[in-house]
Amino acid sequence: MIRVLIVEDTPTARELLVRVFGTDPEIELAGVARNGLEAVEMARERRPDVVTMDIHMPKMNGVEATREIMQTCPVPIVIVSGSLDQTEARGAFEAMEAGALAVIERPVGVSHSGFKAEAEELIRTVKLMSEVKVVRRWNASRLSGAAAPGAASQVLRARSPRVQLVAIGASTGGPVVIETILLNLPRSFPVPILVVQHMATGFVQGFVEWLGHSTGFSVHVAAHGELPRGGHAYVAPDGYHLGVAPDGCLTLSNLPAEYGLRPSISYLFRTVSQAYGERAIGILLTGMGKDGARELKLMNDRGAITFAQDKESSVVHGMPGEAIRAGAATYVLPPLKIAEMLAGLACGGVEAAGGK
User: Fold this and answer.
1) pLDDT digit string (tens) for 267-289?
2) Nearest residue to 151 via CA among 313, 334, 303
3) Mean pLDDT of 95-101
4) Strand 77-81's sheet: what is its strand order?
5) Which one of 99, 130, 161 terminates a domain?
6) Tell me, what CATH number does 188's domain have?
């Protein structure tokens, strides 16, 4: 049985969540908290397998409660949001920065046409997150500051610059890793960065605003036909594959989903490999499934330098693990080392001279 602690201050929303989880015989209710203070107390006393966390609550909000739980009695936390306003969305990503694993929209109600699908997605997410091993997080848990020189930097050698585009794909646990990478790149970073981050519908704008505010990097929702600029990051919008045309302009496509996903990392990596070949860098980060792994190998085969996040730093090592097994990754590194090498490759006119 998976024991779930529901944290929600609105009575009707609490009742809805209790009803949703009550439909699954593999889920048991560990308790219902009405605010962040109750959530912290119940998490300590009842030791649930997973917590569903609201953001805006009296006494202690969801961000503060997430931070306190992850510092004292770490447990997988899923942010369940009942609002798609950007303040709520930004708060959800602040909670992820504090240690929450995923964010998902709360089902709107049993009379809504999409209720069944939304309820099934919530149950699926909670079950998946309950399997993730989490660790204690402290106040300085966010990886910040310049990456220290190390083994990764020692395998670089000078040559003519060639990198013209960076493509990043991530899923579960990805927002904070992407934040870490952007935070540790120089503001003068000379090439565009394209990002596909799997997330619940409606949260992209909040993700972009949080990421830009948190890192100081220029981050945008990608627009069709836009010519990407150096020092800017472009995130795939809801419901569209993000790619790049031969002339370098961004493309948005509503072609069928790949691996059940749209946007798909596979689509991004494939179009980048076709348009840029060896002039690109591909990065596959933490996440479940196989999206992007085969296409990272395609990028690698066409001369691009490729990175996969290492298992130790990944929340879920599904996608990068698949890429590593396929021989798709030039380097297997934690986020800070990826940022360090990325800065050197794109800014310093250097190239990798070794293996993984």
Assistant:
1) 999 999 999 999 999 999 999 99
2) 334
3) 93
4) 27-33, 2-7, 50-53, 77-81, 102-105
5) 130
6) 3.40.50.180
The average confidence (pLDDT) of the chain is 89
Residue 265 lies in a domain: yes
> What tokens does 176 get?
């904070």
- Structure-model confidence comparison of residues 342 and 154, the more confident one: 342
Query: In the prediction, which pLDDT does 156 show?
Result: 43
Coil/strand/helix, residue 174: helix
Catalytic-labelled residue, pool 54, 130, 198, 264: 198
Which is the catalytic residue, given 171, 214, 264, 314?
171
Crossing angle, helix 174-183 and helix 204-215, to 10 degrees?
30
Question: pLDDT tens across 181-231, in order?
Answer: 999 999 889 999 999 999 988 899 999 999 999 999 999 999 999 999 999
Q: Name the active-site residue from 9, 49, 291, 310.
A: 291
User: Annotated catalytic, 171?
Assistant: yes
Active site residue 198: yes
The verdict on 270 and 172 lying in the same domain is yes
Residue 140 lies in a domain: no
Question: 197 and 71 in one domain?
Answer: no
* Angle at the Cα of 144 from the Cα atoms of 140 and 145, rounded to 5 degrees: 125
Whichever domain contains 123, its CATH number is 3.40.50.2300
